[in-house]
Amino acid sequence: MQTSDDLATLREQLADLETEIDATATATLDHWRPWLERPEFAASARNLAHFLALRRGDRIDLQRRLRQHGLSTLGRSEANVLPTVQAVRATIDGLSPSAAIIGAMDAGRARLKQQTEALLGPPSTGRATRILVTLSPETALNPRHMNEIVHSGADAVRINCAHDDADAWRAMAAAARDAADAAGKEVRVLMDLAGPKVRTDEVVAKGKSRLDIGDVLLVRRTEGDRAFGPARVSCTCSLPTVLDQVEVGATAAIDDGKFWARIEQVDAQGLWLRIERTRPGGARLREDKGLNFPDTALVIDPLTPADLAALPVVAEIADIVGYSFVQHAADMNVLATALAEQPVREAPVGIVAKIETELAFRNLPEIIVAAAGRMPFGVMIARGDLGVEVGFPRLSEVQEEILWIAEAAHVPVVWATEVLANLVKNGVTARGEFTDAAAGARAECVMLNKGPFQAEGVRTLDDVLRRQERHFDKKTPQLPPLRSWQQPLA
Questions:
Q1: What distance in Å separates the CA atoms of residue 226 and residue 204, rounded to the nearest whole number?
Q2: E strands of 179-337, at which residues?
Q3: Radius of gyration, alpha carbons of the chain
Q4: Domain residue spans in the chain?
Q5: 25 phi and psi, to 5 degrees?
Q6: For a Cys staple, 209 with which of 128, 205, 304, 433, CB 3.0–4.6 Å?
Q7: Distances (CA, A) of 361 to 87, 326, 383, 400
């Protein structure tokens, strides 16, 4: 039987928790203060500090006891941490939360909405989650297709600077803006810098370039060296400087996890890898495929020479810059400084940091503060590389935590990688794709990749998101009427 003594103890624990959260957050904010140049982000930074303080300890027992009394368990406090704790204390006291507390509870969601609109533009009518569509040069050459994409519900477009050239980028951006003008809506242009992604380059094989379990792969330091001893296949890589940072025993993943290997030797020729996992019968190694070292913290410049060469065009065209392979808070200053040296249009350029490595995930709070403290900002859950880096079994957990951290900071999230991929590429869907697309409604934006059926993909995603938003607000279930069973009795 619950007693008033139980409630009194709970109230005391909540008071102690509030004091603990506030004190810890104050110390965190003192560390972040040099980054906080935008006054409009100050309250969001404070709430993020409160959220990190809340999640430092194990609150499960406290949640269980709150639930027993029918009280909020603090499980939806991301956007307004301290006001939620204060509201629960007021309820225990038999009081309605004060107008100030109620206002603070609403303010967190309002700030997230404002930050999302500042970065991604206004939402489509009747749908809060934006749709971001990756363009190809072929799209720019087909005004009918571009108009169909925009009319179907695209809110923003993405240009991948890892491909094509400045003329193609300008043509794609112009096509998107012409289609947006024709539709009477705003469509933001995100230009994605290629970043320092390690990829396979020249592939050379003894016979077929197929690798199976037990085979040896040599990642060579130079293109000219074709003597690769016991290796059946060898390749060069796009960033050979990383070869000196990888140690014997480290793990390597190739082509988004098509191959998993162990480093057996590092020498003057390069890295000798033993393939430990691949599909039955092996698979072919191809050029321009990702080469990841999940348990190695690589030290690499966040902007490559190719990125720096692209920046003048990016600053000219883009509303948003996609920043690939961010790992540290200091990386945000590197891009901000480089952009400040470019002539930009009147509207401020926003940044989306792509979270693609374990290190970026661990440094996420400081990455957010370092960027959002200066400019419109969001994060992208780049689930391809991130899944390889953290391990696919952990990916679901990691993407949830990214959503929570970003909501606590009131910054928007882009849900990316292979959303409705079969539909966009082949015109048909797989059942599991709809569950994944629906989960994207918890983010502020969902990205579609290139493919001949993009317009159909946008229409389908628009439908899925509208349906999901009736039932969930972020991770909070909503209670619309369930009409399927409301039939008159016979």
A1: 8
A2: 188-192, 200-205, 210-211, 216-220, 233-237, 251-254, 259-267, 270-277, 283-284, 291-292, 320-323
A3: 25
A4: 4-112, 118-196+300-472, 200-292
A5: -65, -35
A6: 205
A7: 31, 10, 12, 12
What span, in angstroms and rounded, lies between the C-alpha atoms of 1 and 306?
Answer: 68
Q: Give the domain 200-292 fold.
A: M1 Pyruvate Kinase; Domain 3 (2.40.33)
- Nearest Cα to 152, choosing from 379, 477, 459? 459
Digitized pLDDT (tens) for each residue of the chain, 490 residues in all: 446 678 888 999 999 999 999 999 999 999 999 999 999 999 999 999 999 999 999 999 999 999 988 899 999 999 999 999 999 998 988 876 788 888 888 899 999 999 999 999 999 888 999 999 999 999 889 999 999 999 999 999 999 999 999 999 999 999 999 999 999 999 999 999 999 999 999 999 888 889 999 999 999 988 766 667 888 899 999 999 999 999 999 999 999 999 999 999 999 999 999 999 999 999 999 999 999 999 898 999 999 999 999 999 999 999 999 999 999 999 999 999 999 888 866 666 899 999 999 999 999 999 999 999 999 999 999 999 999 999 989 999 999 999 999 999 999 999 999 999 999 999 998 888 999 999 999 999 999 999 999 999 999 999 999 999 988 888 888 778 877 776 665 5
Residues 234, 217: contact at Cβ < 8 Å? Answer: yes
What pTM, to 2 d.p., does this model score?
Answer: 0.92
Q: How far apart are CA 369 and CA 330, in angstroms?
A: 11
381 bridge partner residues: 355, 415
SS3 state at 409 = coil
Question: Which of 150, 135, 184 lies closest to 424, judged by CA?
Answer: 135
Cβ-contact 357, 227 below 8 angstroms: no
Segments in 184-291 forming alpha helices (H)? none
Q: Please state the CATH superfamily assignment of the domain spanning residues 118-196+300-472 in this structure.
A: Phosphoenolpyruvate-binding domains (3.20.20.60)
